[in-house]
User: Which sequence fits this backbone?
């Protein structure tokens, strides 16, 4: 390729990126959003995660001693369950992210959901319904907050929104299986409390998410109870290595270059 040809190619890519970018967004900021929205590779990775999980599902159900939750013991007589994150795991928020005026807020997301339907993360619905047919119970643990909205009497209105998102993705569930941050005392943005709550009554055979905190405690730069030390880039990588045996083996992480706890790490 000549230098002139390379210059023309770079210019075209820049023009396309700018034309696809919402007002107020730079092309660099939007590359991750555009990748999720348009790249076939994103769909391939999502399919890969859920297809791999579907193949492993019968073995995890049959092995009564298996748990995907480190530290969970005495599980032989507990019914199997799977824990999912919601955003970028069950549904994609790319369309919302591409159209929202910054800064992003929960109210804006809630308003967007009232007039739009988020897209299913490819592979979720098939997998979840397959697991349900095998008598596995599904729980949805999200860090959308339980907090009031002005003019709404519901003390936890975002919970109904999450429920509707899961249903619109193609899987029927109920409010008892959706768990928000701050919904109960101790349920901080650190999801370990909610995972442990489910683990009291169920054998956790799989975890799905798009963020390390969906699998491993204390992965945030701003620690929440019970964590008392800020995560660093080094500590996060160390934990990924420490739990290497779980990735693709009970733990299934979905791609998300748009947002997450990694953005706060320095």
Assistant:
């Amino acid at each position: 390729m000549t230098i002139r040809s390379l210059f023309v190619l770079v210019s075209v890519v820049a023009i396309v990126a700018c034309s696809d970018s919402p007002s107020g967004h730079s092309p660099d900021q939007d590359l991750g959003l555009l990748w999720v929205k348009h790249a076939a590779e994103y769909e391939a990775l999502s399919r890969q995660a859920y297809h791999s999980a579907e193949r492993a599902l019968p073995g995890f159900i049959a092995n009564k001693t298996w748990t995907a939750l480190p530290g969970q013991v005495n599980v032989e007589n507990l019914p199997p369950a799977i824990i999912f994150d919601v955003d970028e795991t069950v549904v994609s928020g790319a369309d919302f992210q591409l159209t929202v005026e910054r800064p992003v807020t929960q109210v804006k997301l809630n308003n967007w959901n009232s007039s739009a339907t988020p897209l299913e993360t490819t592979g979720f619905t098939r997998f979840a319904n397959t697991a349900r047919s095998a008598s596995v119970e599904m729980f949805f643990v999200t860090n959308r907050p339980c907090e009031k909205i002005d003019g709404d009497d519901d003390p936890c209105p975002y919970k109904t929104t999450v429920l509707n998102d899961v249903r619109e993705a193609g899987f029927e569930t109920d409010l008892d299986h959706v768990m928000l941050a701050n919904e109960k005392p101790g349920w901080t943005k650190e999801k370990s409390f909610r995972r442990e709550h489910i683990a009291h009554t169920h054998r956790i055979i799989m975890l799905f998410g798009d963020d390390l905190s969906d699998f491993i405690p204390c992965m945030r730069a701003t620690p929440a109870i019970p964590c008392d030390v800020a995560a660093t880039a080094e500590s996060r990588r160390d934990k990924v290595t420490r739990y290497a045996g779980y990735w693709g083996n009970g733990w299934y992480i979905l791609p998300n270059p748009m947002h997450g706890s990694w953005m706060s790490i320095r």
